[in-house]
């Protein structure tokens, strides 16, 4: 009976806006006063605002999911009654798919637009198309029919500029939430945190524009992190069109998880990799239903992007690769070397970047974000311009490094000595290993300089107040290192066919070493070292190459890189940034490896004052208000009596305040001396008392989670993670002892790791 | 303090064999008697058998995982002390990877062996190679140099037999656990159930041999389900070589999850699809670490299989496909039709198969499994032989149906009219649509008959006492239906170029319809309808074709098929078989959609006798024994006193019996009148009592899971699923009310679904 009332309450709570602002306005318009007996009436409108969250707070996954199940049950029950309700229930069931379709379409279209705009702007740095300024370099020259393919760079319509002004002046648009990669924040939001406005339409608009500017500015940054953010913004905005998702924070997060997959899908043209990325790296709660829907959305987005065809080659990405030669088992040696390099670089990068970001946060540097961006852009542009490998965009660089050199290739990287006769190259194999010529040696020098430059500048750039992805710069570093090693191996093999290690598989004139593959393995290793992605990284790379053949080298390098980087520190770059920002994020990957008990973590500690709790009857409105005012806790346990301390339920501060406030305004006779009653039936003494009691059982959570004081913390942490709890009460032999919140756990973990527990800012 | 003792207890429990048989033997060899005071000594050897499970029981995931964390903590602590311990800890950390490598190698090798053996035996049905009986048909004819490629079927060395004896006589080898698909049982085991011997070496050996016989016998069954079982057996056997996995049921299940991925990986040459299959369909607890390791193992297995090269074409599977023509958006219509067909067939198949299997279980039919197999094999062989499409093996049939017809193709399915001149085919497009000739029409008739035959015979075959997979027969049914529809569409388009729907994309002489693609879509739809796989199915198919191009048709068909099938009934074939067998499996995919509360499900019910509970002090050994003897419960809550009913902990029946038994034998002065004490310090009255008290705090679980009586069952079910609980205590205002076990929940769910609650057999 009691439960049924509560259930209905929750059902109807969904009909009000799950938003505090709207609550305030609806409260201002005035509601009918309700007698105390009516408050228990299930048909009555529930109080708006009850069951919602404040900004920078953590949601209660269990309650949200329970709310959604109630809603679903309601619809199912109704659908048995009439044809219209049945139709509505079918529409409701398919609305999730429709939403996914829209998210995929919108994100794919936006990604296409961003690609085209960034491409155009990048070329605008170099010159302008005289036929029409909106053409980019390639399109401009395509329209000029007389140019042959080889000479298209010199088409007369394309007017080259020497100025860099275009690049430097473009990085300067800001919005509070539009800067940075966005992935740390999205991880935190997906874990249940609320940051209002972070996924709103203004963020979307500003992020999209600044992303175009930032990518085309020539800074050492990529677009995949921001694309994930853009896709999540799209999803969040579209969620507002569907009641089911607007009103339920847990359901909305399912959609956002799918949107994260969409973001990576459009960034790399890798739908499966995107889904696995969302599963492995970003998401917190990822049920199988979401897996399937994410996959659908990722595919829709990829196909939308492909039909927009931003690169004019019907490929989804700039660096689609096709290799022709197989690799040899002995090459695993250099691949593992690349893995070690990637791991070391990843670990160093995280340390350096976090140190730099901390400096930015704590020193005066942080006060001048615009100046910082302009200075970094200017320096980047000045240093990058002379070197053709740093001048080109990250994606173009990677594309060139991944490429296999054929005989006809005119790129500097393919500046090998041309074979004097066909027989020398071994039956006309146009991909055979050849000795390096002057062009290639110059390219190698430039690449080495570019490597050092990229390594330094990425540390400074990531975390600046511009939208900045990390995938492309990390991959660029790895690709340069890999290509250098690859060319080195190739020359070694060419001049030393007779060495034992090359014997048998690398005869003269054969194409035994593919430097492009080394570049790719290096890129994967560095990206793995920085982000600690595993499966998703390999699958993304697999989707780029499209062959199972090269998975083994990628896997070897990624595994090595992760192990090496983990030896330096367990955190990936995103986790490090979450920690730097003090977000309440309970990492699912890291095992809690300490033997503390719940009693060691719970509040109140031994020296603290006793736990603030309410009794189920016997307290007056004034007493309750005084208790709430005197503390800052977001919820209070309700016990049978102060003596027995047997737990009845848990009530949230926000719900309590709203209900009392509402009752005082609309319910006659509710004064400070009125009794607050959490029991099912009002106690007899209240009826002859001075004022009618205020019944608040409706807002009481009768099923609070409890653990005993002897529960090991590893189990407690597991419960928090898996169920998505906000708080958990601690009992000893049936008596209430204390409370553990997510923040307490995070503080405890920080303490164990010898970090400052006060760095955890939110609850 | 208290916890530390318990922790150490658990640590050392791992040093004993986690196996009841070994416990019995060690007990028989005799142990030193221990004084009562020594029982609290943390250095003392723990009792063997405490903390282990009996056969056909469910494990406690929380306890197992906690045990593993304790073990890990121990190793980490030790590793700080000495170099040797550090090395041991590194070895321990990498032992998981080593195990995965071994599982991959062993499973890949076994799968290769099975493929080769089955191929040879299948051909043996048709004839024998005169040059050497161990060659199969293809290899035999390869060695005969004079045959041209087209005539290789007629090479003189290959002696054809007309007899079917070979086929019929081979299906008759049995072992209790080696029959069936194995996937339902593996799902149950992975969810935490214990079936001893199901993954043992004898099962492996017999399953491997019978699988070869069954596949080659011509029955309508596939090998992927049994291959999953074989891989899990390999993993389980290899686990026994590693202490970490031998002694921890939860850790071992992580390895088994990876092994399930390996099984699919070798069955289809689809490592990513295999991992997703394990994640989506089979696994219960699948942490990210397992994802990464599964992927590794799946890759190793795929490469092992490829280096064995069982099909002689350096492909992993028989039906690798490459299509050349793109598909048109309008073709989505027929693809969705195939999805509907797949869904309807899937739902009907499940109903018919379950009805048949129930009949087998309940009637006299079940008493003659061998006769049944022989009769079905004989009938299958007799009916199948005249039709060439039913005579060939399922994989060969699928391979042929998936194939695209080129001009040179000599297969009957490609019996199109040859174009009279080149210009007619449109610039020599060798794949252009052509009118059907007599050969194709015959083939269509045969295919239609084969479709009906396969549909009927698969219902009877799956569930018989032979190793039988379901993927290949389901796919065969779908592929036939798809090919029929595809050829129909092709002819329609050829003769009606001018129809509105074909205009614009299907000009004469173009290759607009690819019947092979229809076959593939149909196969995916039927497999989806039967198993309700989604992402993993699409990814497996993607890995078979290797192009993102065809994912959209596959996805459309799979989604439609799942929706249609779900409309008939939510259960896939594996869940239906699990339910048929009464295994205690809590489906993670199905939402609990009923508004009952914990108090409605818990025992004791209102009419039942009171809950059997122990008090923490004041009970004698005799009383405890009497209570345990009088009930069949597997555990008892311990309370402060019968009056207060405040919960202290939970003790398992098995642990209690073993401890009392042990104490009676070895501890002096323990008699029936001795007090049993669960408190930390013995109560004062016990010290002047007749006998020293028996302290059992060591076996008491001080952190039992509790929910309140008002907790909605959907939340309770969620807790059970996510934490992997065995039981959960129910409290009201701090007092113990009752207990909910996994079996109670399953019975409750059966009741809601109007099924017999007594069909749930195990706990």
Automatic annotation (TrEMBL), chains A, B:
Taxonomic superkingdom: Eukaryota
- The transmembrane residues are 84-106, 255-279, 291-312, 332-354, 366-385, 443-463, 470-489, 517-542
The CBS domain sits at 602-666, 699-757
Name the GO cellular-component terms: early endosome; endosome membrane; Golgi apparatus; plasma membrane; synaptic vesicle
The protein's matches in InterPro entries, at most eight in alphabetical order, are given as: CBS_dom, CBS_dom_sf, Cl-channel_core, ClC
Q: Would you identify the family this protein belongs to, as annotated?
A: Belongs to the chloride channel (TC 2.A.49) family.
- Protein name in the entry: Chloride channel protein
């Amino acid at each position: 009976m009691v439960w049924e009332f509560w259930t209905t309450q929750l059902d109807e709570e969904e009909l009000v806006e799950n938003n505090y602002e709207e609550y305030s306005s609806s409260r201002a318009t005035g509601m009918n006063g309700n007698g105390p007996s009516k408050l228990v009436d299930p048909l009555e409108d529930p109080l708006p605002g009850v069951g919602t969250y404040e900004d920078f707070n953590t949601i209660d996954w269990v309650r949200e999911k329970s709310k959604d199940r109630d809603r679903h049950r309601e619809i199912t029950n109704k659908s048995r009654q009439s044809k219209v309700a049945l139709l509505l229930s079918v529409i409701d069931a398919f609305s999730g798919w429709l939403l996914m379709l829209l998210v995929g379409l919108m994100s794919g279209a936006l990604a296409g637009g961003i690609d085209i705009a960034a491409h155009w702007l990048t070329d605008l740095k170099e010159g302008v198309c005289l036929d029409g300024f909106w053409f980019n370099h390639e399109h401009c020259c395509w329209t000029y029919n007389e140019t042959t393919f080889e000479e298209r760079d010199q088409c007369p319509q394309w007017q080259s500029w020497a100025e860099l002004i275009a690049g430097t002046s473009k990085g300067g648009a800001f919005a509070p939430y539009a800067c940075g990669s966005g992935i740390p924040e999205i991880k935190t939001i997906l874990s249940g945190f609320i940051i209002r406005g972070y996924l709103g339409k203004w963020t979307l608009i500003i992020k999209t524009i600044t992303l175009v500017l930032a990518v085309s500015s020539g800074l050492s940054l990529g677009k995949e992190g921001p694309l994930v953010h853009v896709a999540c913004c799209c999803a969040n905005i579209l969620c507002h069109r569907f009641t089911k998702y607007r009103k339920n924070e847990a359901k909305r997060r399912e959609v956002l998880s799918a949107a994260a997959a969409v973001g990576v899908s459009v960034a790399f043209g890798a739908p499966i990799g995107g889904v696995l990325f969302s599963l492995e790296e970003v998401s917190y709660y990822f049920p199988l239903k979401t897996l399937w829907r994410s996959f659908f959305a990722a595919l829709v987005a990829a196909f939308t992007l492909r039909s927009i065809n931003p690169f004019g080659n019907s490929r989804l990405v700039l660096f689609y690769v096709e290799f022709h030669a197989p690799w040899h088992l002995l090459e695993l040696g250099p691949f593992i070397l690349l893995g070690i390099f990637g791991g070391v670089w990843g670990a160093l990068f995280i340390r350096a970047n976090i140190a730099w970001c901390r400096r930015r946060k704590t020193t005066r540097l942080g006060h001048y974000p615009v100046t910082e961006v302009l200075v970094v852009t200017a320096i980047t542009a000045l240093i990058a311009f002379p070197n053709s490998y740093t001048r080109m965009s990250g994606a173009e660089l990677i594309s060139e490094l991944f490429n296999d050199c054929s005989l006809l290739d005119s790129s500097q990287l393919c500046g090998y000595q041309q074979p004097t006769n066909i027989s020398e190259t071994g039956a006309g194999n146009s991909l055979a290993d050849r000795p390096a010529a002057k062009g290639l040696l110059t390219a190698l020098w430039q690449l080495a300089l570019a490597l050092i430059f990229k390594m330094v500048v990425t540390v400074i750039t990531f975390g600046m107040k511009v939208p900045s992805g990390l995938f492309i710069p990390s991959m660029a570093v790895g690709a340069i290192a890999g290509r250098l090693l690859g060319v080195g191996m190739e020359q070694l093999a060419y001049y030393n066919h007779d060495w034992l290690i090359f014997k048998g598989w690398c005869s003269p004139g054969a194409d035994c070493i593919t430097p492009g593959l080394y570049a790719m393995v290096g890129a994967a290793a560095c990206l793995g070292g920085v982000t600690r992605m595993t499966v998703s990284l390999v699958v993304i790379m697999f989707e780029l190459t499209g062959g199972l053949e090269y998975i083994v080298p990628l896997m070897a390098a990624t595994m090595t890189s992760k192990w090496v980087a983990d030896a330096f520190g367990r955190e990936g770059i995103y986790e490090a940034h979450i920690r730097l920002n003090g977000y309440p994020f309970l990492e699912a990957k890291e095992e809690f490896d300490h033997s503390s008990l719940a009693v060691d973590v719970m509040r109140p500690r031994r020296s603290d004052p006793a736990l603030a709790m309410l009794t189920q009857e016997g307290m007056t409105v004034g007493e309750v208000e005084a208790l709430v005012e005197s503390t800052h806790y977001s919820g209070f346990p309700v016990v049978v009596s102060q003596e027995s301390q047997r737990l009845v339920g848990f009530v949230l501060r926000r719900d309590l305040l709203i209900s009392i406030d509402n009752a005082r305004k609309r319910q006659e006779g509710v004064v400070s001396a009125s009794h607050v009653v959490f029991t099912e039936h009002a106690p007899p003494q209240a009826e002859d008392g001075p004022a009618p009691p205020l019944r608040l059982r409706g807002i009481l959570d009768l099923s609070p989670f409890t653990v005993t004081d002897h529960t090991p913390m590893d189990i407690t942490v597991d419960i928090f993670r898996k169920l998505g709890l906000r708080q958990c009460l601690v009992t000893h032999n049936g008596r209430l002892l204390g409370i553990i919140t997510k923040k307490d756990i995070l503080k405890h973990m920080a303490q164990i790791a010898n970090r400052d527990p006060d760095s955890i800012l939110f609850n």
